[in-house]
Amino acid sequence: MAKECDGLATYARQDVAHTVSRCWTGGSGRAATERFVKHADDYETSGPALRAMAKVYDDLAEAITGAQRDLNSARTRDLKVDDSGHVQLSHPVMVPAGSTEHLEPVNHAQGIIVDALRKATQPAWTRHAPCARSRG
After folding, report:
1. pLDDT (tens digit per residue) in 119-136
2. Are residues 45 and 6 in contact, defined by beta-carbon separation less than 8 angstroms?
3. CA 76 to CA 54: how far, in whole Å?
4. What 3-state DSSP class applies to 128?
5. Which terminus of the chain is more exposed, N or C, with fewer CB under 10 A?
């Protein structure tokens, strides 16, 4: 879409505005030419904004894909992850009193899941700044 905006800007400025100014003389011709040049400016401005917006969506898709991969990995290791990201063993385990060795995979997975969820939710509210800046 951004490439189309760039192409339209060039076409509006170089071809249409030039043809209108050559073929349509007088005040109304100048006004029409100015309008096409204004459209070209608008299209040029839209290109970077669309690129920034596409980057936000690409980053979000990448983060969600990573989060899904990490969640599925935890599930294949006999761990259960609830909707909030809390990780626990899928079934009770008999261990000696005071032993926490069986919780090492849970703790490791918990850190990965928390990071994955943070990455998956972060772009939604932190990546809008580039879009706002590119609009001017």
Report:
1. 767 755 554 555 454 444
2. no
3. 33
4. helix
5. C
Phi, psi angles (nearest 5°) of residue 81? -120, 125
CB atoms inside a 10 Å sphere around CB 19: 12
Whether 112 contacts 67, CB under 8 Å: no
- Note the pLDDT tens digit of each residue in 24-62: 878 888 888 788 788 778 877 887 888 888 888 888 788
133 vs 136: CA distance, rounded Å = 5
Provide the token pair at 14. Answer: 């170089």
CA distance 80 to 57: 29
Look up residue 111 and give its amino acid: G
Maximum CA extent, the chain: 95
Strand partners, 80: 88
The C-alpha angle 120, 131, 116, rounded to 5 degrees, equals: 10
Tell the residue number behind the tokens 């850190």, with chain if given.
111
d(CA 70, CA 52): 27
Q: What angle do CA 82, 80, 100 make, to 5 degrees?
A: 115
